[in-house]
């Protein structure tokens, strides 16, 4: 599992690759939270394009990152989910708090309840 | 329903074994010539069941996970994940979406995900004795669309 972070303006992109489960999630969490603290972005974009496996630990990971980012005044976007990962994410009602985006189309959904 | 093959194994309840257990089940499934989607469903459900043993049954203190699977003539795989951990006092409640007894980035979706990605899910539990989860799925002929 790898996390590659890049910054463009005030957008921090964390590109995740490999498998996300209860075993790998803590390291991913730490890498993302460290980058948010270091860069102080206004948008955190979690890119799932290269994720080869994800179970519900991925939902916990996104929920936790949303909460942490919010503390830093930062919004969270989830990008490039496969159909399977999106099914799992949607079970949690996460769409109410984070936007799901795809590089191929513009923001697919943004049901923000502020 | 005739059983055509089975395996059984015991692994330590360590989170590093989550990927091992789902890889074993995926490899065992392969003989039924399932599609990529069906294998993905099996891996996801197994990962949730094994993680529950580690996080809940044994509360990250370790123990043994008993994993077995049987493949039937009609293309159904039946995977059993058993532990001798703390057990679940109220199975119905534990299976409610988003219900979790742990904070710390746990989504409370484990059983919901298992239900979504299996055809039939059976959970038997006795407090103080342990939990048995049986995941059933038709995998043969589940060609990708």
Low-pLDDT parts of chain A are 106-114
- Summed up, the helix count of chain B is 4
Work out the count of structural domains of chain B.
1
Kindly report the greatest chain-chain contact and the residue count on each side: A-B, 21 and 25 residues
CATH architecture of chain A: 2-Layer Sandwich
Beta strand % of chain A: 25-35%
Overall pLDDT metric of chain A? 91
Please tally the β strands of chain B and state the result: 5
State the CATH topology of chain B.
Heat Shock Protein 90
- In round numbers, the mean pLDDT of chain B is 94
CATH class bucket of chain B:
Alpha Beta
Give a written overview of the molecule.
The complex is a heterodimer of chains A (114) and B (145). Chain A is of the alpha/beta class and 114 residues long. Chain A has a single domain, classed as Transcription Regulator spoIIAA (2-Layer Sandwich), CATH 3.30.750. Helix content of chain A is 34%, strand content 32%. Chain A has helices at residues 25-39, 57-71, 83-91, and strands at 2-8, 11-20, 43-54, 75-79, 99-101. Chain A has a 5-stranded mixed sheet, with helices on one face. In chain A, helix 3 links the parallel strand 4 (75-79) and strand 5 (99-101). The longest helix of chain A has 15 residues, at 25-39. Chain A is globular. Chain B has 145 residues and is α+β, with helices and mostly antiparallel strands. Chain B has one domain (3-138): Histidine kinase-like ATPase, C-terminal domain (Heat Shock Protein 90, 2-Layer Sandwich), CATH 3.30.565.10. Chain B contains 4 helices and 5 strands; from the N terminus they run βααββααββ. In chain B, strands 1-2-3-5-4 form a 5-stranded antiparallel sheet, covered by helices on one side. In chain B, a hairpin with a 3-residue loop joins strand 2 and strand 3. The model of chain B has no long low-confidence stretch (mean pLDDT 94). Chain A binds chain B through residues 19, 21-23, 25, 29, 53, 55-57, 59-61, 63-64, 84, 87-88, 91-93, and chain B through 15-16, 18-19, 22, 37, 40, 43-44, 47-48, 51, 54-55, 97-98, 104-107, 109-110, 112-113, 116.
């Amino acid at each position: 599992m790898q996390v590659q972070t890049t910054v463009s303006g005030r957008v921090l992109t964390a590109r995740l690759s490999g498998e996300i489960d209860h075993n790998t999630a803590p390291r991913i969490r730490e890498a993302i939270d460290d980058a948010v603290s270091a860069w102080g972005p206004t948008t955190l974009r979690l890119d799932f394009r290269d994720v080869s496996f994800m179970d519900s630990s991925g939902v916990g990971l996104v929920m936790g990152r949303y909460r942490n980012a919010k503390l830093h005044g930062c919004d969270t976007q989830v990008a490039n989910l496969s159909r399977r990962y999106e099914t799992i994410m949607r079970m949690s009602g996460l769409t109410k708090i984070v936007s799901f985006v795809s590089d191929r189309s513009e923001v697919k959904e943004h049901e923000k309840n502020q | 329903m005739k059983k055509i093959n089975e395996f059984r194994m015991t692994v330590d309840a360590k989170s590093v074994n989550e990927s091992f257990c789902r890889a074993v089940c995926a490899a065992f499934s392969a003989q039924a010539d399932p599609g990529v989607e069906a294998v993905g469903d099996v891996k996801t459900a197994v990962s949730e069941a094994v993680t529950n043993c580690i996080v809940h049954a044994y509360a990250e203190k370790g123990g043994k996970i008993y994993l077995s699977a049987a493949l039937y003539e009609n293309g159904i795989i039946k995977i059993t994940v058993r532990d001798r951990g703390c057990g679940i006092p109220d199975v119905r409640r534990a299976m409610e979406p988003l219900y979790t007894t742990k904070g710390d980035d746990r989504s409370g979706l484990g059983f919901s995900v298992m239900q979504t990605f299996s055809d039939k899910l059976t959970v038997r539990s006795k407090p103080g004795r342990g939990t048995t989860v049986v995941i059933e799925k038709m995998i043969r002929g589940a060609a990708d669309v």
